[in-house]
Amino acid sequence: MTDNEHRLHLLEQMLRIRRFEERCAQLYQAEKIRGFLHLYIGEEAVATGVMEVLEPDDAIVATYREHGHALARGLDPGLIMAEMFGKVEGCSRGRGGSMHLFDASTRFYGGNAIVGGGLPLAVGLALADKLSHRPRVTAVFFGEGAVAEGEFHESMNLAALWDLPVLFCCENNLYAMGTALERSESQTQLTLKAASYEMPAWEVDGMDVEAVAEAARKAAESVRAGGGPHFLELRTYRFRAHSMFDPELYRARDEVEEWKHRDPIEQFRERLIGEGVLDDEAWGEIEDRVHEEVDRAVALADAGTWEPVESLTRFVYSEVAP
Amino acid sequence: MTDNEHRLHLLEQMLRIRRFEERCAQLYQAEKIRGFLHLYIGEEAVATGVMEVLEPDDAIVATYREHGHALARGLDPGLIMAEMFGKVEGCSRGRGGSMHLFDASTRFYGGNAIVGGGLPLAVGLALADKLSHRPRVTAVFFGEGAVAEGEFHESMNLAALWDLPVLFCCENNLYAMGTALERSESQTQLTLKAASYEMPAWEVDGMDVEAVAEAARKAAESVRAGGGPHFLELRTYRFRAHSMFDPELYRARDEVEEWKHRDPIEQFRERLIGEGVLDDEAWGEIEDRVHEEVDRAVALADAGTWEPVESLTRFVYSEVAP
Amino acid sequence: MSDVIAPPETITYREAIREAMSEAMRRDDRVFLMGEDVGRYGGCYAVSKGMLEEFGPERVRDTPLSESAFVGAGIGAALGGMRPIVEVMTVNFSLLALDQVVNTAAVYQHMSGGQFNVPVVIRMATGAGRQLAAQHSHSLEGWYAHVPGLRVLAPGTIEDARGMLAPALDDPDPVIIFEHVGLYNLQGELPEVDGSVDITTAQIRRVGQDISVVTYGGSLPKAIDAARELDELGISAEVLDLRVLRPLDKEAILRTVSSTHRVVIVDEGWKTGGISAEIAAIIAEEAVWELDAPIERVCTAEVPIPYARHMEQAALPQVPTIVAAARRLVGR
Amino acid sequence: MSDVIAPPETITYREAIREAMSEAMRRDDRVFLMGEDVGRYGGCYAVSKGMLEEFGPERVRDTPLSESAFVGAGIGAALGGMRPIVEVMTVNFSLLALDQVVNTAAVYQHMSGGQFNVPVVIRMATGAGRQLAAQHSHSLEGWYAHVPGLRVLAPGTIEDARGMLAPALDDPDPVIIFEHVGLYNLQGELPEVDGSVDITTAQIRRVGQDISVVTYGGSLPKAIDAARELDELGISAEVLDLRVLRPLDKEAILRTVSSTHRVVIVDEGWKTGGISAEIAAIIAEEAVWELDAPIERVCTAEVPIPYARHMEQAALPQVPTIVAAARRLVGR
Ligand SMILES: Cc1ncc(C[n+]2csc(CCOP(=O)(O)OP(=O)(O)O)c2C)c(N)n1
Ligand SMILES: Cc1ncc(C[n+]2csc(CCOP(=O)(O)OP(=O)(O)O)c2C)c(N)n1
Ligand SMILES: [Mg+2]
Ligand SMILES: [Mg+2]
User: Fold this and answer.
1) pLDDT per residue over B160-174, tens digit each?
2) What pairing do the DSSP bridges indicate for beta strands A59-63 and A138-143?
3) CA of B110 to the centre of ligand 1 (A)
4) What's CA A288's distance to the chain center, in Å?
5) What is the ipTM of this complex?
6) Which atom of ligand 2 sits closest to the CA of residue B173?
7) Fewer beta carbons within 10 angstroms: which end of chain C, N or C?
8) CA C241, CA D235: separation in Å to the nearest integer?
9) Residue A233: which H helix or E strand, with range?
10) In the prediction, which pLDDT does D192 show?
11) What is the model's pTM?
């Protein structure tokens, strides 16, 4: 890929997430998708930029707000959508839903819905790599709200103490449900937390996909080269409610509008147009391609089948005798 | 009290702890004391110095290594010893033993043996004071090992975020059981943890009772005046094994001997002699007084009685109907 | 003056809890509410919506995501003279705070020889049925009910949702209140305004002769529906609502067994080692000769709860499975 | 050559576990041990003493006091292809890591539709009897046994201490092993060197006709002593060692009930909602007509465990209380 092809690819990845999730919101209204649904709209540059620099055998650990990560990692949108429909063809057999997307083939370790719960897991995956002398990276995503959880601190310390190849990606979208960062942390400069573990840490404009990719590349390279864990604070914003149940009482409409001016897709699109890399026609093609893909995903999900109730107890334990 | 009387008092407090615990060790060998016994010998300056600056209605939350704190807070040595003997006259009716000394009258909230477990409690006690507009301080003691626990971080953040009157006293004796600080923390400068919560923090020579008292006074005054929580790292060393079961495989005899040259009692005694505040005779009187006191404590414990087995289920619930 | 009788006002389970909390806070300065998103967000399940406006951010206190610390802080504040209501968003997250509950709140009084009691109230949502999948659908009431030193309540009606809080706050010891997520929208008549209820006994919700259905919380409506269906089949089912999961009202359990001689226990917890087991054990110990049939338990299947609706429903106790169990025992 | 037969070598429960771990680590590079003070200190209960010297600090890995993170890291390492043995010093501290066990290890496979299994082994000490008071004397095996997705083992003999680890490590799913603190010094004959044992069934430790004593772990020696005393009274007691607390070997329980028709369950957990309740419930459901007497449970009193020896002993199951319960049921 040339540089510019690559940039267009980043744009398309972000748009894929955006359109996919817009459809999810509709499908939630239509009651095709149920349970909790957490949209990533507004934050697409983060997952897109980070995922870009990872290798196929790197590992990803994400949260309940992980559609973007799954798509950027290359999970089939149809299998993700089928999962959200609760169909057995889904990437978790319809058992996980929106919050629990899994895919062994891309080393996508969920979809973890206990805030902070994925962090120790990432430390362990990285420990396995270190003990096995495999030059892999484990990238773990979590919100700024998770920084208040004890597990975050235990995991940071363990990773730094043992020099483990973890890339900590803190998605600072300023809110944990309705709790603003300044009501959740006495010290809101999150890189100071990393410093207190002697872990290299950078603040990154999470609305700029190229800035994210660049920072992530530098960090991942260092991690892979044995430089120990790194911490990225990715400053972003969610444009939508926390979940489909959230009346958004806690933030001003204005603030949201303000941030929408920094829409990562719109910004990047304009940059590419300004630099002559993209024109309206090419943009139209991308839109069409993504649209079609989302249509196909929905069709696949719709055509999917229900897991037979008889198999409810399958996979509680492995299907081999101990 | 004049200044010098006060200094002699500090010396006597430390000696009281030392001699009391030396006796405890013997009584453990004699099987009068059972369970876990964690000695504070070597660290006396810390509890003595901090406790000195607290008011009667301040609160104290300590760990399983809390004989020194209880004595310095003014609990009756006889009731402490009776507790360790398992007698009903003990300060916890013989139900707590060495690890769980309690005393409502001096607001001594244990004796908490889950590492880190006392920290949230201290935050809550301080919250009650803040909500009730009482200018009190809650001093919480914990080892440097507890810094790795998530609860430590959650508690630090909560206290700082809510500006609560907590005095965090980290007793850094360099080991958590057999785990040296550098094998437990990636960043061993503990005040940086406090900084990451925007909490004022000082390193203090925990082998110098006057240095401790001075730092604690400054910190407690600020806390009481509404300056929010403060963090003291008190650098000290335990001269004895972690508990009576510890064969001390993890540290060199030399290291222990090195530290013993900085014995807080010996150092302070020499200083006072050097300054003409103390002479051999006065020292002898102190020794005698303390010795007698410990004898009386043992006698009281020995004379104590056993809680009747029938009252086993008392105090599981309060003795009033809801 | 009007001679039209106003229709009895209705209220939801959610509103009943909110009213109980607001009333307690109006009456007693020592009471405050603390938890994740109880304030500005209005509560994850909107239970505390509007309370921030009335009581302000000191008394309706949003916490960071720090379950262990804020539950522990609630315990500490109780020791410090307050009467905190700590909301843990759901029982699923309460595992992170379990140490504080088990090793501090529950033991403090006994371990200190009676010196310190802990008058904290901890509320949490529990249960499945909303397609929230494996990590958000636990029913772990049985674990809490295992711990000496705690009182554990499970309001299954509007009246209990409204009336259990006041006595819980009056209780000098730690009280855990489980609110089933499936009940928040339950609607019913407004109980008496000062409707404080007893928090020591189980209650018969429906009298019957042929079989006893012993249950609580989110399964109570299912048990009552099942009893109705059984009625149509000519089987008269008594429904016992445990209400208080610790200390259990043993006498009430033994009474209903001695009256019907057949028992189905319905519990949304997993069967193995759940609270259903304790009920069965009590009967096996103290009323085994009263039984005219073996005990049956209708519980959640021994699986993590799946997301897909049909799978989730298949995992949970349901009216038809309760009815079927009862029919097996009665033999028709 | 000598014709003197060497006395059978003896070994402690503690050494048996150490040998099992060392052997596993020699055989399989993927196996490593991780936990607080397992290395330089030699293990809180000296179980891993000397292993650091043989295997080095990478494979005998001291952890900071971070139960949640290192248990979670063990789970992650298992997902990453290793075979970790995680030592949580005691069950008391395991509450801090319970979220990782319940919400990650236990659900991962089911929730991912079968994609990810978690071959981790988590060992911990459990139980009371050493005057360690309320916070250090829990017996919470029953909680773990409640959770689908886990296998829970409780070696009560030297052979099981030696032999359960290898199959646990071979198990593709998470296994929790409870080692009772009162057993570490138990001494006995060295079992076969490759003594891998079955980890799916309960075992009769003593055959008897009049009554069954169902137990496990630290209570097993007490049950056997009680059986001996009962023998002298002319009561022949069968002792069933559950060994595997999840999944329970139901058949073995039902078999012994059907053979003796009288059951005492002995469990160091608190009675209410403990594992003893599940055993009773299984019988009440599936073998109630086999009973010639009500079930009795001999469990720990419903109190936080006190420090004073006489009080602690009064709180725990004891040989005389087991004997008394058995005599009540047999009627002599
Ligand atoms: C331990 C735990 N506590 C509470 C929740 C409920 N909850 C789900 S998401 C969330 C907010 C998390 O905020 P943040 O980490 O910033 O991530 P974001 O949602 O903003 O991406 C909360 C409180 C949970 N899932 N887990
Ligand atoms: C949560 C928890 N984990 C483990 C233990 C066992 N333990 C008791 S003391 C201790 C070391 C604590 O070290 P530190 O905090 O430095 O205090 P010190 O003993 O040095 O005073 C450990 C690991 C415990 N009591 N609680
Ligand atoms: Mg956020
Ligand atoms: Mg220490």
Assistant:
1) 999 999 999 999 999
2) parallel
3) 33
4) 24
5) 0.98
6) 20
7) N
8) 41
9) strand A230-235
10) 67
11) 0.98
